[in-house]
Amino acid sequence: FVASIGGGYRVSPEWRLHFEMVFGGDEGDFIPAIGAVWQKGNFKLDLGLAGLPDTDIESILIPILAIGFVF
C-alpha cells in the first residue's frame, strides 16, 4: 500500500513551492520531498530534494531535476 499527501504554494506568476510525503512499504516508511517549480509558458523546470530513509547510500538526500513541457 502506498499513499501520498502534498501541497504547493504559488509565490509569483512563474514560481511555485511544493512538498510531498509518500507513505508505504511493509515498515511504514515515508519519503519526504521539497522543491520549487519555475514555469514560463508551456515549459517548466522542477528543482528539489527528496529523502531516502533506511538506505545504505552515504547521502540521505537526493537532488531532483526535471524538465517538462505542458501540452
How many angstroms separate the termini?
A: 31 Å
Flag low-confidence runs: none
Structural class: mainly beta
Q: How much of the polypeptide forms β-strand, as a percent range?
A: over 45%
> Helix-strand pattern, N to C?
EEEEE
The proportion of residues forming helix, as a percent range, comes to under 10%
Overall mean confidence score, pLDDT: 86
DSSP summary: helix tally: 0
CA-based gyration radius: 14 Å
Q: What is the approximate shape? A: elongated
Could you name the key traits of this structure?
71 residues, mainly beta, 5-stranded antiparallel sheet, 5 strands, 0% helix
What is the topology?
Blueprint: E1 2-10, E2 15-24, E3 29-40, E4 43-51, E5 61-69
Brief characterization of the structure:
The protein has no helices and five strands. The chain has 71 residues and is mainly β.
Written description of the protein model:
With 71 residues, this protein is mainly β. It has strands at residues 2-10, 15-24, 29-40, 43-51, 61-69. It is 0% helix and 69% strand. A five-stranded antiparallel beta sheet has the order 1-2-3-4-5, with no helix packed on it. β2 (15-24) and β3 form a beta hairpin.
